[in-house]
Amino acid sequence: MLTQASPWYAHALQRTAPGPAEPLVPPPRMEWTTRTGIGPGAEILGPDLRRKRVVELGCGPGHNAAHLATRHGSRVTGVDLVGLQVRRARSHYGRLNNLTFVAGHALHYLHATDEQFEAIYSVFGAVGLVTPELLLPAIAHRLKPGGILAFSVPHPQRGGRAPSAGDLPRRDHVTLPDRTRLPVARWDFGTGRWEKHLGRAGLWLASAQDFHDPRQARWPTTLLITARKLCPRNSPGGIDGPALPAPRHRRRPHPLPRRGRLDAAHSRSPRGRPHRPQRRRPGRHLAQSRPRPHAHGRDPYGPGHTGLVHQLAAGRHHADRSAPRHPSPAACRPAAPRITTSHPNGYLWKRDHVDGWLGDVPAVWIDDDFTDLDHSWAAERTASGAPTLLVQPNPREGLRAEHLAEARAWAGRLLDTWTAAPAAPIEPEAA
After folding, report:
1. Nearest-angstrom CA–CA distance, 388 and 410
2. What is the pLDDT of residues 333-351, one digit of tens each?
3. What is the Cα–Cα distance from 408 to 391, expressed in whole angstroms?
4. Bridge partners of residue 159, in order along the sequence
5. Collapsed DSSP state (helix, strand, coil) of residue 181
């Protein structure tokens, strides 16, 4: 039912509506863009694909998979979310050898299979439509050492737009054959952000290419990225890919002269010990300046901050009987958001990120750069059931004890309100 509710099901339904699909001759070329003859072909997956295990994530009607199976002798598996597309692909190319089509989610298939692949590719398929933090590690897990990942996605600058500034998807649309537009969520990353996500998954960005539609020459329309799975040097299996650098062997130190001896290479201190000049390690001062992680639950902002968090946690426990009996500060605070860009719209630029991060939990926010719009936002949150206090220190004085005292007093009043309110009755479970 979920698949039938997706825009891709509606797209496949209109494609297959005119009539049953007929057997087709595999195309002579592999395509990475929406226009034939633009960009590279199958050579981007490797110089020799004979008997190589290849999987396509989002195969659609199966044209590219059929080309690889017949023209290059690869053993190809095409995976598509919509069963109608798989049925259509089987009607076109089901008679071919070394070619299999599977209906299912790309992430589920990668988790379920136990096979390793020399190449995985996606042409406007799963990559870009499935969460990269989940899909890319699953792809890397199924690639052999040195294996290739290649995928083409709509260019993030198509139509003059800008790439996504953060790691969240943004609203896009898919155009159906009848020109209807349905909304989809897409990760519109630029090359730099794709490189970051690939690196986290253990993949190395090999190339990134922009392609233009001849009818829309001003803006690029397709971004084609290739990456390889890093592999140890001289590792068995896989294809010729980038190897991890060999471990560098440290030179054995030159034997120091014995006590009291002098030569041209060494000097002697007054006590007779050889003098060795001190070499400062690069980056050592940076390592010493990094903040140390706090251990044993200690809060780096001091005991007053920890007590305030515990006080708010206790209040939420009294208000919600399903909460943990002894919540910790970490349980009361979601993971910190990543602030990636500014939005100077008359209010504090952090607010767009913090608002979504907080959700409906009560909050004390201390900052020295609030505006009237920020205080109005806090009043609206409080009126909607999420009490919010903004504390604004003087930027020339910084955070002082009275600021924490104000926050603690506010939390105490909030705690009194929660504990005075009667608990909601617990309804018995249905038999």
Report:
1. 10
2. 444 545 444 446 777 878 8
3. 11
4. none
5. strand
173 bridge partner residues: 183
Q: What percent of the chain has pLDDT over 70?
A: 66
- CA-derived radius of gyration, the chain: 30
Q: Does residue 238 surpass a pLDDT of 50?
A: no
CA dihedral 229, 230, 236, 237 (to 10 degrees): 10
Give the C-alpha separation, 115 to 329, whole Å: 43
Contact 327, 311 (CB under 8 A): no
Q: What is the pLDDT of residues 186-215, one digit of tens each?
A: 999 999 999 999 999 999 999 999 998 877
* Contact present, 170 and 188 (Cβ < 8 Å): yes
> Which position has the token pair 């439509």?
129
Residue 348, amino acid: L
Cα dihedral: 140, 146, 149, 150 (round 10): 170
Length of the chain: 431
What is the maximum alpha-carbon separation in the chain?
A: 98
CB 187 within 8 A of CB 164: yes
Residue 38, CA atoms < 13 Å, CB-side half-sphere: 19
> Residue 244 and residue 235: Cα distance in Å, rounded?
10
